[in-house]
Amino acid sequence: MKYDFKAIEHKWQKVWADEKTFAAQIDHTKPKFYALVEFPYPSAAGLHVGHPRSYTALDIVARKKRMAGYNVLYPMGWDAFGLPTENYALKNHINPEIVTRNNVARFKSQLQALGLSFDWDREVNTTDPAYYKWTQWIFLQLYKHGLAYKKEMNVNWCTSCKVVLANEEVVNGCCERCGGEVVHKVKSQWMLKITAYADRLIDDLDGLDFIDRVVTQQKNWIGRSHGAEVTFKATTGDDLVVYTTRPDTLFGATYMVLAPEHPILKDWEDRLENLAEVRAYQEAAARKSDFERTELAKEKTGVKLEGVRAVNPVNGAEIPIFLSDYVLASYGTGAIMAVPAHDTRDYEFAKVFGLPIVEVVAGGDVEKEAYTDCAAGVMVNSGFLTGMTVEEAKKAITQWLEQEGKGHAQVNFKLRDWVFSRQRYWGEPIPMVHCEACGWQPLPESELPLVLPEITDFEPGPDGESPLARHAEWVNTTCPCCGGPAKRETDTMPQWAGSSWYFLRYMDPHCDTAPVSREAVEYWGPVDWYNGGMEHTTLHLLYSRFWHKFLYDIGLVPTAEPYKKRTSHGMILGLNPHAFENLPAAQQKKLVDETGSEKAARAALVEKYGEMAEHPVVKMSKSLGNVINPDDVIAEYGADTLRLYEMFIGDFEKAAPWSTQSIKGCKRFLERVWGLSEMLLPGEGYRPELETAMHRTIKKVGEDIDVLKNNTAIAALMSLVNELYAAGGATRDEFADLLLLLNPFAPHITEELWQLMGGEGQIAHARWPEYDEAKCTESTVEVLVQVNGKPKARLSLPVDAPKEEALAAAKADPAVAAALEGKTLVKEIAVPNKLINLVVKG
Ligand code: ANZ
Ligand code: ZN
Fold first, then answer.
1. Which of 221, 226, 246, 323 has most ligand 1 atoms within 8 Å of CB, for mutation?
2. Cα of 413 to ligand 1 centre, how many Å?
3. Is this prediction's pTM over 0.90?
């Protein structure tokens, strides 16, 4: 019989759906396991081959856990609000709801074609009013607990999307989504006070099983630093407070720098002798992004304030004050004490403006550059701190500042509050109402969901107002407090909102009294294993951990953290058709002939296609025509082969290029498994010669799945299949256990073969095989004995036999002894467990 993967996959996908094979129910008799993958944004492009890498990896974990007796929840849904859909709708004059519905249908059928063991009864969609009712409810709770507030903000404004962006959506001064220019603009925004959770968001990472780089990213983003606030007096009598992580270097502070937006500048207008210059500098700085301003490589600029100076509190020295855009208004106090000898930016600035550089930590050469890596240094030129280590000096100066009332220890965070308003249509309406008399009022919970009205004009207003602002019939309402006329908030929530709690909804998707019932979250929560892309390990994780902590504080969920374990997969890359390596041989040759050398040929490609031509492996992109569509792969090779291949492609956490050659290898492997079903041998149990291989493979595959080493698990299965072929076929028990081990990777073919061999029920419900540790290692190995490199004998020796023992056994072998007869032994080479070579002369 032929391996007809199309018919088999279609058949089993239908059986699983009809019989609800993977539906999860609360069952207190079993341990639970909640496996989660990031739900996709249903884009118009459909599924990408990157999606199945994550989904298949945790599908394998989920399937194995089920077989090992766990009650497994493995759900899927749609993160469907957001700009691309809205932009598509705008361009094509369709309602985003319809666009979303079509995209979801396509994604769903593509996912089902992969044979993933999702519980489709728990599907959620962030754009469904029954879902976003609870997103809005959570917002109201945040508001009621003082964690949502409205603020006039200097916000990031994407000039192309015409939308306010959160800091985290600005990458290198450009819009994360469209790459457009980002400028500053003042707007009144809803903000979430994530900073109130900054300490807990760092400290609680300690108890979690997150991969290291994710922990590092979370910590860096929150950016907790320990230092001091120090008060300098200005010659005007005003206090100027700075934040420094290096109070120990106070004796080396030779000037001060204020952010161009520093509020004290307003008070000093009358005193400043160069006010016009100051104003011009302020205006120029306002046009730059924070990224441009703090870029290290950039030439330092600034203006010295004429008419006002400051006094260093530790030695009474009068020092100049500058404005410079390398100091940000939004961090610390917006003012710094500059220590050019030990800070690179201050050093560069001091060089431009010819300011004194005073060394206070010995060990570097401050004539040449700032000495910054000085944590182990000793203080010099520093009054009572001289002779102390940096660590001692930090303590001593902080104590001194506190005694003198000139400063105190201070902790600072990079993390800012979360800008939660978007001036767009396709998002959750913010359930707030503004009344002239009562101010901002929350909508009563009984009025949730506040449904997005159906409109046809999605274009944002010229000043960036939400399109909803044009719809008076929706905007005008009554005040929930006084009953007078009032207006609804017309901003919507960012896409991050719906994804900040979706993992809770899966536990109880139809609950209509709360986001999730206590019973469900107590049983299923927290998520045992969460996998997703590295691109979401900063913000999405941070936001969802924040919301979860808040829900914990108000008693909705029983744990402070949502996810016990977090892993991330590497991207699947494509071949760059313009790279020299990837050109067909004939074309390579032609190009080399034309240009004179391979080097020149490469240079010509870079000339033609840009620097990218130097990289043989790149992100898949439409413009390069190297995008692989999972539908095509499934049609040609089948879902089982695609799954197997995506797991075999390389180390899970690393990026890997797509290779058509190795996908064919995976298909051949499945064909060999199919072929084994026609080589069943009489007899039960494992044959003695297969015993070690069977036990060892069971152990290896199980352990590898648990640490996402699916590539080596598959390799182990491949060698088991080779051994079975070499042994003339498989007994029923050998074959059954092979199918069980292979099932998480290739669920369709294994269901079919299980059924054909008369296995009980679906293999998805069968028990994961067990191994006996004692039987995992071979007790003897075959060692080849050579004399002068020529094979003479094969000996069966105990594993790891000592060298002397192995040599003695070799020499005792009759054939070897005959070859040694009358010769002088000059060298004995022994490769443990493999080979003995005896070199003789004469
Ligand atoms: C004096 C000093 C001496 C500093 C020295 C560093 C090295 P983190 O770790 O990021 O918290 N700083 C403070 N506020 C700033 C602002 N608003 N804009 C730009 N820079 C600012 O860094 C804190 C350090 O960054 C502070 O410590 C301050 O420079 C600078 F050898 O003070 B330091
Ligand atoms: Zn009112």
1. 246
2. 12
3. no
